[in-house]
Design a protein that fits this description.
The protein has 88 residues and is mainly α. The chain has helices at residues 5-12, 14-27, 46-54, 61-79, and strands at residues 2-4, 32-34, 42-45. Helix content is 57%, strand content 11%. A three-stranded antiparallel beta sheet has the order 1-3-2.
């Protein structure tokens, strides 16, 4: 289940969304896909992000910080009707 950085921003705010997306792009094995026409907009798999943030969370401050926000994003995707242009 993919979510865009624009959706992330609308759910958790711009500053936190920027930090979360940057962290996922640079410090995780999560697949981040750059949207065509906008190198500042990415899509990532929210399920992969949840799984990654759970691994060794007790010893990683960023994982502990971001996990509740990733869980909130997962809930948002589950409760939001799927749009054809965002599915992958």
């Amino acid at each position: 289940m993919f979510i865009t950085s624009k959706e992330v921003e609308s759910v958790i705010g711009k500053e936190l969304a920027d930090r979360l997306c940057e962290w996922l792009r640079t410090s995780s094995p999560i697949s981040c896909i750059v949207e065509q026409g906008s190198e500042n907009t990415i899509r990532f798999n929210i399920d992969e992000a949840m799984d990654f943030s759970k691994i060794k969370m007790h010893s990683d401050a960023l994982k502990r910080e971001f996990f509740p926000h990733i869980a909130k994003l997962k809930q948002y995707k589950v409760s939001t009707p799927l749009r054809a242009d965002l599915s992958a």
